[in-house]
Design brief:
- The complex is a heterodimer of chains A (about 150) and B (about 375).
- Chain A has about 150 residues and is α/β, with parallel strands linked by helices.
- Chain A has a domain of about 90 residues: Beta Polymerase, domain 2.
- Helices cover about 15% and strands about 25% of the residues of chain A.
- Chain A is built from 3 helices and 6 strands, in the order βαβαβββαβ.
- Chain A has a 4-stranded mixed β-sheet.
- The longest helix of chain A has 12 residues.
- Chain B is an alpha+beta fold.
- Chain B has one domain: Cytochrome-c3 Hydrogenase, chain B (Orthogonal Bundle).
- Chain B contains 15 helices and 8 strands.
- In chain B, helix 3 packs antiparallel against helix 4, helix 4 packs antiparallel against helix 11 and helix 6 runs antiparallel to helix 11.
- Chain B is globular, with a radius of gyration of 22 Å.
- The chains are: A alpha/beta (about 150), B alpha+beta (about 375).
- The interface between A and B is large, with 37 and 45 residues.
Chain lengths: ~150, ~375
Amino acid sequence: MSGVTESRWVGPAGLVAAAEAARAAGFFFESMTCVDRLDPHGVFELLYTFNRWDEAARFAVRVWAPKDEALPSLSGVYGIAAWNEREAWEFYGVRFANHPNLTWLLLPEDTEFHPLLKSFTAPPPSIYDDSMNPSAPPADAGAHDDAHG
Amino acid sequence: MTTPTAEPLDTYTLNMGPQHPSTHGVLRLKLTLQGERIMGVEPVIGYSHRAHEKMAENRSYAQFLPNTSRQDYLSGLIYNVAWVEAVEKLAGIAVPERALVARVILSEFNRLSSHLLWIGAFLMDLGAATPFLYAFDDREAILSLLESVTGSRLTYATARFGGLSRDLDADFPRRAREVLVRLKARRQEFEDLIEDNVIFRQRTQGVGVFTLDQCRAWGVTGPPLRASGVPYDIRKAEPYGAYPRYEFEIPTRPEGDVFARYMVRVAEMVQSVRIIEQALDGLPDGPVLTEGSIGVKKRLKPPAGTLYYAVESARGAYGIILVSEGGSEPYRAKFRTPSYANLGVMYDVLPGTMVADAVAILGSVDLVMPEVDR
């Protein structure tokens, strides 16, 4: 990938060790991105980047996480990882073991769908949406697909 | 006669926000208090979540342009330019010299307007109403200048893949220099009005210190990091656009407290003025949009790949992680926003401080909530 100095693929088991090594070497936690690779690979790709203040040394750690398998949480190594992992959970359904509080961060509590999945197309009719008249629901309510306008 | 005994204070929970005036947007802090001392904090965010990352996946690269400046509405032009430059890098689109320099000029003006708003709002949080009027007066001049070029005052969508939508007019350098002269003259007034004020110093000095270890664990960047003594600025660390041509310094302060964060931003404004002056002096002639380049109506299909593109926004390191599968829409776009990390550090910084200081500390990191929530 471009824009990084070094990129390394690790297995889920090597993730915490990689983060601990980055922390010990003086890197800060920069970002975490989850990518839906379920079709065709059946996995989520998690892309972590760590960076340094003293030199341009963006270090990318990439993991392929099998769909129904919990990943180790990095929240014990880097505090901000806890929020990033909550995002990955609410938007994709990725689970993290040993996470202190794996719950909704940006989405309303009790949201029952994972909207950044590629299989997700339109939200169900919202109880918060005033534009929908409950007395006269559209015939195709909940079945419309406006994802591509 | 009974002597008063010191009973242990009850622990209770206080919701600060989501409509608290000092949170600058809809942020809620669940504070666990003992008396007025903060024992624990749990930020509750997401109130202004608009699914920018999902929107990016189901529209073309150009159709996403208006979204960019709505993440951080105070330095939106920088975000707009960041998106365009990320896509240009992914797709290998050349940009004319004049557009590169104009982007720097407009971005730095945007940074100045953002910092001015922050000075006004932050001082207002601390109970000083007057600086707000000074800051908004100057900010108005910048917004009018940017409006004359971009047509917008807040949510800019002026950058295009391959340049800019509009050229700087012939009179622009003169008007820009007028604004710079005004800002430079104001510097002394701010010093007299704010920095030498005893109350301001007592509210800010030694308050809310960020340690380097905290900055690493939470990914703090931008003025809060530089106020802790680290000269880290993407414009120098990973030079982009026309920035490598200009001489400027990265102001730092060793203290790491609220006062240092104020001083760093004020010093940064001086450097922004310096950059704009150099850019105006060396503004090349020529087109601002590559002839026959990708207009907004054409379908742009960058090759498959993953890209990290970073810029320095007014709040810190802003990163765009762009995954292309070769289609006309991004496969995935992730935005690493500086306020997100700069808010996260509150878990470590706020416990142990007083409620009144929490207002000063929160104000000093310059949060923009739509950027945290995206």
